[in-house]
Amino acid sequence: MEVRVQEADFDFGAEIAAFRAGKPKIGAVASFLGLVRDVNDEAAVREMTLEHYPGMTEKALEEIVAEAKGRWDIFDALVIHRVGPLRPCDQIVLVAVSSAHRGEAFAACEFIMDYLKTRAPFWKKEETPAGGRWVDARETDDKAALRWREK
C-alpha cells in the first residue's frame, strides 16, 4: 500500500508499470485518473488550488485504503493525490488497485475514489472569471459513498 500527497506531477504509465512490476499473481489492475476540468457548475475554471493538512491527510488516505483491503481480496493499492495550484488538464489523483480478478479490483478502486471525495481532508479553491471561490462537497459524491455503507 502506498499513499503519496505531493505537488509534483506524476507519470501515469510509469506509476502503473512500477505498481505491477514483478508480481505474477496479479490478474487485474483497475485504475482511476482524475483531471482538472476547465469548467465547474457552468463557471470557467482558470486554476484550482488544493490544500491539505500534512500528516492528517496521508493518515486519512491510508485508512481509506486499509478499509478497502478489508472489504475486498486485493493485493495492493496506490493513491497519489496532488496539492497546490493546478490548471485545466493537469492530473489531480491516481488510484490503482491490484488483485487476482477484475471484480475485486474495480470495486475497491471505485470505493477508494468515492471515499477520497468525501472523507479525505482536502480543500479546493477555484479561480474563475468572477474571482476565487471555495468548492463545497457535492451531494452526488455523498450519495456515491453512501452505497458502500450498505455492503
List the helices and strands and how they pair.
Elements (H helix, E strand, L loop, with lengths): L1 E5 L5 H9 L7 E8 L3 E2 L2 E2 L2 E6 L3 H16 L2 E9 L1 E3 L4 E9 L2 H18 L2 E7 L2 E4 L4 H8 L5
Parallel strand pairs: 1-6
Antiparallel strand pairs: 2-8, 3-4, 5-7, 5-9, 6-8, 9-10
Helix pairs in contact: 2-3, 3-4
Give a verbal description of the structure.
- The chain has helices spanning about 10-20, 55-70, 100-120, 140-145, and strands at about 1-5, 30-35, 40, 45, 45-50, 75-80, 85, 90-100, 120-130, 130-135.
- The protein has a 4-stranded mixed beta sheet with strand order 1-6-8-2, with helices on both faces.
- α3 (about 100-120) crosses α4 (about 140-145).
- The chain has about 150 residues and is α+β, with helices and mostly antiparallel strands.
- It has 4 helices and 10 strands; from the N terminus they run βαββββαβββαββα.
- The two termini are about 25 Å apart.
Features:
single chain, about 150 residues, alpha+beta, four-stranded mixed β-sheet, 4 helices
Entry summary:
The longest helix has 18 residues, at about 100-120.
In whole angstroms, the N-to-C terminal distance is: 23 Å
Biggest sheet architecture: 4 strands, mixed
Number of beta strands: 10
Order of strands side by side in the largest beta sheet? Answer: 1-6-8-2
Put simply, the count of helices is 4
Query: By helix and strand content, what is the structural category?
Result: alpha+beta
Helix and strand sequence: EHEEEEHEEEHEEH
Q: What would you call the quaternary organization?
A: single chain
Supply Rg: 16 Å
Mean pLDDT rating? 92
Coarse morphology: globular
Parts with pLDDT < 50 across at least 5 consecutive residues: none
Portion in helices: 25-40%
Strand portion? 35-45%
